[in-house]
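hey so i finally got around to running the thing on that chain from the lab meeting. sorry it took forever, my laptop kept dying and i had to restart like 3 times. anyway pasting the input first so we r on the same page abt which one it is
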Amino acid sequence: MINVDCMRGIGSHLSISCYDCPKEKLMDMNFIEKVFIELFSAMGINEAKNPHVFIYKKGNNSKKTGVSGTALSQGAHLIIHTFAEKNEAFIGFFSTGEFDSDYVVNYVTNAFEAKKSDFNVFS
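ok and heres what got predicted. didnt touch it at all, straight out
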């Protein structure tokens, strides 16, 4: 477990890459919104603003689609981008407070049913 202590600087950023995720989850706006709400709630960040989630299409190619979203809170934000054609999701979490990066990685990996994931922490 990496317990990220943000006292050294302004905050820490956790970047998670999820691979081989089911397309259905990657394109489900309700599911993505639920991830925002549940993750913030589990971390005790209850004052988070409503997530803004939307489907995007890249150019005229309907195969290059996904869902993007963000949610903000005082001292924290969560960003999700999915790429359905590649079965991938990329998640960024920033907080000025202390957080358990292993918990966040496990939650996201399980929620997206990723067969493979990796992460980096930047302080």
